Amino acid sequence: MARVCDICSKGVQRGNKVSHAHNVSRRVWNPNLQNVRALVNGRAQKMKVCTRCLKANKVMKAVRKTKAA
Length: 69
Hints:
The chain is mostly beta strands. It has a domain at 13-55. Helix content is 7%, strand content 41%.
């Protein structure tokens, strides 16, 4: 399963970890993805969404129905 935001397609970035002695090794930055139940075409669907999209209200969260008491 890919580490990619379903809204903005933000994914894994790769680069170098550089120490104080300038020793270079490869490293990975993962996006901050959250599993969210969102409304898509009027239906609730599970999606992986980055926190930037959640904060910008690009996703309408689905509300769970509760039983009447």
